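Q: Hi! First time doing this. I have a protein sequence and I read that you can turn it into a structure. Is that right? Here it is:
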Amino acid sequence: MRGVSEVQPASGGYPQPPREDLVENLHGYEVHDPYRWLEDPEDPRCSEWLQQQDELSSERLADLPGRDRLAERIRALMSTGSVSAPTWRNGRSFFTRRGTDREFPVLFVRDEFGTETPLVDVARIDPSGLTTLDRWTPSREGDRLAYQISTGGDEESLLYVMSVETGELLDGPIDRCRYSSIAWLPGGEEFYYVRRLPPEDVPEDEQQFHRRVWRHEVGKDPCSDVLIHGEYQEHTYFFDVDVSADGGWLLIHGSPGTARRDSLWIAELDHAGRPGPPRLVLDDSQGVRIRAGVELDGRLHIRTTLNAPRGRLCVADPHHPDPAYWTELLAEDPTAVLEATRLVEAPGSPPELAVLRTRHAVSELTLHHTTTGERVREVALPGTGQVTALNTTDPLTGTGGGRLWIGWTDFVTAPCVRTYSLGDRATELFESAPGQESSPNVNSTQLSYTSTDGTTVRMFVLYPSELETPLPTLLTGYGGFALSREPAYTPTALAWVETGGVWALASLRGGAEEGEQWHRAGMRENKQRVFDDFHSAALHLVDQGWTSTDRLAISGGSNGGLLVGAAVTQRPELYRAAVCSAPLLDMVRYEHFLLGRLWSEEYGSAEVPEELGWLLAYSPYHNVSGRTEYPAMLFSVFESDTRVDPLHARKMCAAVQHATSSPLDKSPILLRRETEVGHSARSVSRTVGMATDHLAFLAAATGLLRE
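A: Yes, that's right. Below is the predicted 3D structure, encoded as structure tokens:
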């Protein structure tokens, strides 16, 4: 019988929870789970253990050297605030701005005369700081706004509708709208949206699923909404809805959970906005991504990975949307990933197609002919950074025609807005973040290194002007779910570098920095490649003299927390300290909790014998080894997290505290908890508090800060 090695008793210094002799035989594997009782926060033993962990971490984190200096600098760097690229509706522009003294962004509208009016300020709605603005969508006439808010980190969005002109509340709250898109019909009286079925209509363990597409009339009881689509899809399906600019077409995108394979339906709308039967264009069984919309030129624009893992753009007649009728307008670029396209028109000139690509995670923007796809010119961007939004003025107004509105950020520039004019072919800064006065004195480079199997991987490195290596270095990454880590303003990175350290971000397989093939090369049976890429990044930083193993720290959150957990259990000697935030760590039982069942396509399922073998090979919780000198570790969790259950960190923390042979004073293993906050958005104050604890912990271990 094959087995997974049991941990051995180790030295104390930590709370000593009971270790149960729980062993399961799963598909011939002997799987030990001594801390399963920590899965239940209501268990009195769990409550007592958590209280002891809180006392231990509070005492240790409060006494870290230099934490007040770090907190002050992080707070100052976050005080730059931010501003988003405007969304245009009928001469009005809608945007968010976070001022230098604000905890959250405020949603504003700016009229054609430049007058700004705040629309949604969650700090006014809830002075406690526990409410966040999740999503917002103005009507195409710009006179109504649908917005969604949630409280306490649960991401359970409540949908409201307000009058833009008067601020009057017209509708809501409508519940069960988590992750719902809004597609307004012309006139602003109705919209399509996504809402879950009532909890009493579905099995108890499926209440986070069973989404449907509905048509809603503003002000009416949502119980009277018209069901449009979704009842025949599997219960984990997510949907996204869109109505074309001319109001003539409804498009429904869907995917099973977080899987990177899409379905697309299209339906023609009659004069009253009623759809015919949605027509299936592409099915998720084909295993490709697709995003489509009917543009102002009347054509269906289709951005897809079908026969092009880095993406291509096709066009078609929306009356004949099947792939057999597609015409390729932009071919796949073999070294860049297609991210977005926008049709932009200038008065008296033919329209042009703005094309956003990322090349090795760095944004590029070009203009092309709309009929041939031929490249016309490049749009100048400030440097190595990320285009966060690419918007145009809407067709109901001529104001600002022929102009692109570009959301921009880079490692030293807080989110700001730039514009590009087709007329004078120039880009200019439209609005900086409110507190951005000068760029921090930080240098950056992008370098390449070779992973274990010979694959070339890229890594961004930020470093101080006075570079006397080796320096304390913080390495991070993500490597999953086709999420790309691109250059972005990161106050924690800047604070680390300004204090005298090096900060590095590796573009690991499993992400989408090099397209869908890059993602697939790091998922399921290939997941170990992600960890190999990370180890290789660490070794490269050491070999090239940036740092040394006793000065190398790592951090990651969510799937990146899994990355950190695997890194320290596979190569504990390579890392001096680690922060593991909202992590996924028990890969045998992850599917049983919260949204875990959505992720089996990314990781594999313990229900399948072969896939259980993949998971056990790297599952951090199951690969903790007794009498091992583990690096200092800080597990950071959020008790209201509705994505990744904090139980992962609880079980792993207990296992490592039991197993480590390193003294508490040298390499502490701590659990940091927060309540009434979840996996996503949070206030600035909470962000500063968490970031200070994380950086101070790593700085103390690596020698970056000493009293």
